[in-house]
Specification:
The complex is a heterodimer of chains A (101) and B (493).
Chain A lengths: L4 H21 L3 H25 L4 H31 L13
Chain B lengths: L8 H31 L3 H28 L2 E3 L4 E3 L1 H27 L5 H19 L3 H19 L6 H32 L4 H10 L5 H18 L7 H8 L2 H26 L4 H24 L4 H22 L2 H27 E3 L2 E2 L9 H4 L1 H15 L6 H15 L2 H26 L9 E2 L3 H19 L1 H15 L2
Antiparallel strand pairs in B: 1-2, 3-4, 3-5
Helix pairs in contact in B: 1-2, 1-4, 2-3, 2-4, 3-4, 3-10, 3-13, 3-18, 3-19, 4-5, 4-10, 5-6, 5-10, 6-7, 6-8, 6-9, 8-10, 9-10, 9-12, 10-12, 10-13, 11-12, 11-17, 12-13, 12-16, 12-17, 13-15, 13-16, 13-18, 13-19, 15-17, 15-18, 16-17, 18-19
Chain lengths: 101, 493
Amino acid sequence: MEITTSHYVVLSTLLLLIGVIGILTRRNILVLLMSIELILNAVNINLVAFSAAQQQVHGQVFSIFVITVAAAEAAVGLGILIALFRNKQTVHADEIDLLRW
Amino acid sequence: MMDAITFTATDFHVLKPAILLCLFGCGILLTDAFLVRRIGKRWYNAVTALVAEGAVILAVLQHMSDVRSGGPISGLGGSILIDGFGVFFNVIFVLAASLAVILSARYMEAEGEHRGEYYALVLFAQAGMSIMATGNDLVVLFVALETMALSFYVMVGFLRSSKKSNEAAMKYLILGAFSSGLLAYGLSVLYGIAGSTSLEKVGEAVAARPEGDWATILALITTSVGLFFKIAAVPFHMWAPDVYEGAPTPTTAYVSVASKAASFALMIRLFLSAYGSAADAWIPLLGAIALVTMTIGNLAAVTQSNLKRLLAYSSIAHAGYILLGLVAANEAGMRGIAIYILAYVFMNFGAFALIAALRRDGEAAEELDDLNGLFARAPGYTILVAIFMLSLAGIPPMAGFYGKYYIFLGLLQEGYYVLAVFAALYVAVAAYYYFRVIRACWLQKGSETPATLDMNLGTRVALVGSGVLTVLIGVMPQRFLDLAGESVLATLR
């Protein structure tokens, strides 16, 4: 069976859904950050698949920017998490309740 | 096919504001590390940031006169487009950032976190916003949005020893990164539809799709959800009250006005050019979201006792009104958005600046009760409270009135009577909680340990400056309406 662009789109949609469900149901902030990475990787799969289908590089360039942004976001996110952990000794979203959600 | 990559004088010219901001930002980091830290006078950094703003406003004014004489300037292979709309928003960002800088110095010093990085982040965020308003390409817009958002995450968590600030930054980052992810997904689908990242090409490709096309709908839904998060529209508003309460107050002021203005700029650009042909699909969506946003924002604000949370819910409600202008999508509506955002910068910034000046026992005071009895001790301050609250409520002759007026006018012209009626009714609800704030400081008796005002020159300049402009736009609106009108002509091509 030949793998077409629509297969990639189905894969990326599933990955997006897994990420969204992770954000909505999990309570560990590290897992939340991982779910965000999943969403951004779904974006990358989309971009690279479309880029290959259309025989041009714009999408691949876009995906490199998305990877860079994901790295920056993880760096800032972990930095903030460390600051939070120093003050509160927890990484669970349920115990971070000084401000009402 | 890729064109040969060259960097021309025009490219440099269109990028000048962003380049200046990044250079000055790096400059502040370096001078802070090697010079200012040794001298121990951290306000030098604020002065450097203000010099940067001065240089940027010169570049932006240069853009303005170029656009007036020769039309829009396109640079970097069409991925940046300087038009009246972008210039207008750039002026707004310069004003917001300058106010943020002069307000921050005293507050951050009092909180013991007065560092050079803070001012560098103000400038980096502004560089992102500047490109968000002028970008004309999906990649550029996404990277600009993230530049802004990443700077804001750090600024919100800048009070490292405060649990509230840490918590606010964490929530902002999780929800902000989540919304950026969804937005990026929508942009990737748009790229798939168009095979190009240029907004014009995307617009043409979307127009060529059949009606009810699933890919267009998917892109529309994911990008809208991402943007609704950024402007804090209901049901994606949960982060706003927490972030506004936990962040250092000058940062709250900056985030609440500048990030909202930049996100609206991006939203208007994307909806009018990329989704222009799918207006039948997004107008009901935006109308419904705007209605829910005004309802929840206004009703939740009524019950708040913390001033920052009250203003957070009020800013959610304001986002609803601005969305209505996009629903109308005609000249009056767009002009309404422009003048609304301009007025919003001054009145909302002023309102947060009032809170930043308020302290009790050396701690930041943010409760409604902290205002009690201030009329007897600081009459000038309470007059400013009245000006900003009346303007936020949209009562003439204050600046906030004209935005609402033109947006309602736009709705009526397009025949959205139900939306206009609801929007007008909620103005009455909003008046109730804004008057509660005025009542707290004008009529209530103070307690035995009243809150004190902690001000320096910067705080005074920020307060009086935004107060004067709030009144000025209200009393002499013509010049500002012309400026707003000029900016919308660019979007409604």
